[in-house]
Amino acid sequence: MTDICYILDNGAYNAKVGFSSMKPKVVPNCIMKAKSERRRPFIGSQIDECRDASGLFYILPFQKGFLINWDTQKTVWDFIFSKECCPVNFNDTPLIITEPLFNFSSIQEAMTEIFFEEYECQTLLRINGTDLAEYHYRKTHNNDCTLVVDTGYSYTYIVPYIKGKKYREGIKRIDVGGKVLTNHLKEVLSYRQLNVMDETYVINQAKEDSYYTTIRRGFLRDILGPDEELEQQTLRLNNERFSIPELLFHPSDVGIPQMGIPEAIIHCINSCPEENIENLLENIVLYGGNAMFSGFRDRVYNEVRSLALDHFDVNVTLAANPETYAWEGGKYLFRDPDFYSFCMTREEYEEEGKSLAFERFDI
């Protein structure tokens, strides 16, 4: 047995990766190509070396939340596991890797095969990111029921857990995530100001810097005075700063006939056994990139509070670091005395084949 494991939260936009003994690295899960440097692809965090971020072209392994471009994903994984990023020897290090809820059996099968046969992994655990988030919350709050809200790049999932197990009848999916928000922002700005339809990378940065609680790149400039001159190209963001994230609460604004997050939370909880409703309302946890929008937690709380019955308490927790919350759950899970019983070994794979993986991993 080893003292550390390797955790890969394989998100559709960013992969969170690292050993359980360290802080995770956040690596873009894509390959990018730039107009100014056509010959060189930028893999993962190599994008930091790009001199011109305008006109960057994404090649993504995920579409609509599922891994379908294996060549791209394998290239990114090779980069992640290399000396340039976060090197690992799978011969003596267990691997925890996340995959989407209700993942297609063909994708599950391919992932198992790649890690056992190509990467020669000795111990593997495939698991949903929401499972890791729930485990994280349960270990730090000591509760029996948790409602996990995962709002990421491709979608938003609301998943109820009762005594550590997914209650599948209550799971809700909303087809709005960071990708929809960025694409809608591109369309609005292109209609109102200048054509930015080819500037996905730049507009995604603008969305994060303008709407998130932490400014990570550049700055937001105040309105110019009458005697001041503009020194650089500027996008003027007015009501877009709140109308874009509003799609998480009203997907119908862009023609998606689905309920918003607070209503979906109530529908999800009401689909669960009556005796668990109160506990679920008291243990709602938000994580994922969209949870970083300023005021997101308060908005969800206020609307859920207004929709829930008055005699129930409502508690909504925003993960301390929404982007890496599931990854951190992997650290807690690795410390579980039963951890290795959840995993599959290469020896088991060679003896019993892929069918055992379907039995072992609750996807």
Automatic annotation (TrEMBL):
Coiled-coil regions listed: none
InterPro entries: Actin, ATPase_NBD
Record-linked Pfam families: Actin (PF00022)
UniProt xrefs under PANTHER family: ACTIN (PTHR11937)
Organism: Operophtera brumata
GO CC, alphabetical: cytoskeleton; nucleus
Origin superkingdom: Eukaryota
Keywords: Cytoplasm, Cytoskeleton, Nucleus
Family assignment from sequence similarity: Belongs to the actin family. ARP6 subfamily.
CDD domains reported in the protein's UniProt record: ASKHA_NBD_Arp6
UniProt-recorded name of the protein: ARP6 actin-related protein 6-like protein
Gene3D superfamilies: 3.30.420.40, Actin, Chain A, domain 2, Actin, Chain A, domain 4
